[in-house]
Structures are given as C-alpha cells and as structure tokens.
Design goal:
One of its GO terms (molecular function) is methyltransferase activity. One of its GO terms (biological process) is methylation. This is Class I SAM-dependent methyltransferase. InterPro entries: SAM-dependent_MTases_sf. Keywords: Methyltransferase, Transferase. The chain is 43% helix and 24% strand. Strands 1, 2, 3, 4, 5, 6, 7, 8, 9 and 10 form a ten-stranded mixed sheet that branches. The protein has a single domain, classed as Vaccinia Virus protein VP39 (Rossmann fold). Helix 5 runs parallel beside helix 7. By secondary structure, the protein is of the alpha/beta class.
Amino acid sequence: MSDSFALDWLRLREPLDAAARAPALTRAFARRLPRAPHLVDLGAGTGSTLRHLAPRLDCPEQSWTLVDKDMALLTKAPGELTQWADKHGWTVTEERRSLRIQADEMTLRAEMRRYDLTTDLTGLALGQVDGVTCSALLDLVSADWIGKLAAELARSGYPPFLATLTVDGRTAFEPADPDDAFVMDRFHAHMRGNKGFGPSLGPEAATALADTLRVAGYKVQVAPADWHLRSRHKETHRLMVDGYARSATAMDPAAGPRIEAWAARRRAAIADGATLMVGHQDLLAIR
C-alpha cells in the first residue's frame, strides 16, 4: 500500500468511524479522566482518535502522545491536525516536539512518537498516563499480544482503556449475493494472517480482548460501533469490495474467477445504490 493510498483511505474512513463510535463509552471514559489528562493513542496513524475524542472529553487541557510504527503516517499527522484545527478556527503553534492547538475553551498538545508496538510494551510507560486509547488496531494483533497489553495495563495501575472500531466479523450486504459468505469466509481467513504481531485474531479480536481484560482485573463494557455505507459512500464501498476480493483471492487463488465475478456484481450493485454494514465493537475497560 502506498503512503498516499494509506492517507486517502484514512481520510475516507474517518467520517464512518466518527458516526460509528459508541458515545456512551466515550462519556464513561471521559468521566474517569482528570481535568488535564495525559493520553496515549496506540497505532495513532494521523491522529483520527484525537480529532474525535478531544472535543468530547470535557477536559480543558489535554496532552496526547500519538504512537505509531509507521513514520510516513506520523509525519502526516501534524498537517492533518492543523487542517482539522483550521476548519474550527483554532490556533495552531508548532513547538519543539509537538503541536499546540488552542481552541475556544480547550488547549491540546499533541506529540508524535515513533514506537514499534510489536516490541516490549514497557517502553510505552503507561504508568505515567491517565488514559490509553486505540482505534482499528486490535483485529490486527494476536492473542499473545493482547495478553501482553492487558498485563502491561494492569502493571501500570489500570489506566482507563478505550479501544474503538475493532472489526467483529459481521457484514451485511444489501441486496445480498449468493457468494457473499463464500468470499467473506476467505477474507476473514486472510485477516488471521500475521500482521507483525503473530497470528492475527481478526474477527475474534473483540471477544478475546474483552475476555482477557476481565481476567486481568478490569471491568469491561462493550458496545456496537458499526459502519453503515450508503449511497453517499460509493467510493469507500468500492474500495472495500476490492479489498475483500483481493484478500479472498490471496487466500484461495483457485477461486479467483469466482471471486472476481462476485466483485463485479457487487460493483454493479454499488452503482445501483447497494448498502453495506460492517460490524465493529467499541470497548471500555476501567478498574
């Protein structure tokens, strides 16, 4: 995936993410924070989680550390945050290692930190933060990695943890196609490949995360955070279908012609106004 494609995709999905997130869990997370929290966002990309959460936390001063291995995305984060702030008429100041965003009744500081999450998580110093977030990350990781994360959170004093937009394997195409399940079974099998964290949990991640955090000593709340792609989301919908077909074919090359025929029918259906629901889960863990 090229850097430009990755950035374009993140921009396309951000409105869908924003509409899907569970507001009740955001409010409950906010209630656990001090008035001037230090938050760390894991797998932060260009800062979409900050952009969504910061105005909703009712914290007049916020310090964010955006953590990601992908330096190409992290270097785009200041520009994306500046564009976001400009749309609201807020003031942005570049400081030595961070951005300072002055909103009407809120001051944000965002530091970009390159860190390989596949390595020792103790380097994140989670015991020094007031809250931990991540979005669209945990379906990429292994059961072993989730266990290590839960252990590190517990060792760090159980900071509140908000994990949003974890894919849970539910999809609903409308109108349906006879090969929807055939293709999605192969796509989900492909999801379970190694993305650098060991064998990915893919659609099992949301359940595994909740179970692991409960065993570690957290109280866990879960809520649906489903994407709903409608006629105004045609471009995103086509990209989703292309991605499903590409991954399914990689998993079962012999079925390539059948999968491409499915994708062609789905593209035609999108042009006629087809819809798609993609299931996600939001999770809040508190002590």
